[in-house]
Amino acid sequence: MPPSISLAMTLLEAIAATNEGVKCISVACTQGGNVLQDIATLKAIRILSKKYLPQNVAVYPVLHQFMGAFPSSRDQAEGLIFLGGLVASRGHATKVISKTYEESLGIPTAQANNDGISLTR
User: Can you name the residues that pair with 26 across neighbouring β-strands?
Assistant: First the structure.
């Protein structure tokens, strides 16, 4: 789904939630692979939230690192994870759903999760 449609749907959900009294919203987007577009999407979350949500609502932009098929090569997977960290940092995400170099192999080990978090940071 294009980031603009995904962001619009997420913001509509946020508007509906705040109309019901929710005061804290996490607005998520996924790392799509175009670094500039992904950063712009994260930045747009704050801009659009200020415009369309009540002032007393706390909004937290969230990045889900790449959700597609992960490369089986550790170097390529870590490159993708690194780009996710870069996107999150430059887009001012307050939360990152991180990945590991073992994503293509099945359930990641605790060490792979730790390494993915460290690489993202």
Answer: 60
